[in-house]
Amino acid sequence: MxxxxxxxxxxxxxxxxxxxxxxxxxIAIVDFLEASDSLQIVSDVTILRTSPFPTExxxxxxSVAFPVNYNPLxxxxxxxxxxxxxxxxxxxxxxxxxxxxxxxxxxxxEEIVFTLGRAIRDRIKYQxxxxxxxxxxxxxxxxxxxxxxxxxxxxxxSCRTLGFATRFASGYLDCAASMVGHASTHAWTEVYLPAxxxxxxxxxxxEPAGLKHVVTGVSxxxxxxxxxxxxxxxxxxxxxxxxxxVKTETLPPSI
Length: 255
Prior knowledge:
Shape: globular
Number of domains: 1
Mean pLDDT: 85
Radius of gyration: 20 Å
Strand order of the largest sheet: 10-9-8-7-11
Distance between the termini: 18 Å
CATH class: Alpha Beta
Number of helices: 6
Low-confidence stretches: none
Structural class: alpha+beta
Largest sheet: 5 strands, antiparallel
């Protein structure tokens, strides 16, 4: 999967202050040149997707043994992806993880991630939320409901209790809703495994990440993948409405 072309349009008039790369994400800072009563951001991206694509089935001889033994040369780089963002919940969350995994104990790291992801899909009912931020793992388990970002956080933190290097992925899901322009942003989890690299799993739908998952940002923390953030001059009542629409279209094969 690769980006073929990308066009970004922002209204009102603006100028690009600077851009940089953070966790592999392209970050741009924009300064506006005139006052306006609205802000519109349009992102048009063309993506080329090709097969074969990694599937759920662990593939010999590249199955990774659990516990994962990371290369010493990689430890410093991946350490940021192993630190819990809800450290006060590690104990209880570890007990829940143990209760989910088979008593016999799997020795395949990828299958363990899939098992945790399926358990979250079976236990947590999807609930779209407009509130900012993510729920803590234990709160999501207690309520047994959550948004895609809540379930992704639960899987990320669960994997970290087992020593996995894990990151939060945000983007879009190519699905029926997106084809008619009624979709929104989506979130899932990616785990780094030696030899296999970053492997994604979507606990909201209970499936490994595949061609229908279009990633736009990854980070060791959910805050690191916000598509838009910033400040404006005015009162709280000035921000009356925010609308986000995601639409996908399948283009004819290029010759």
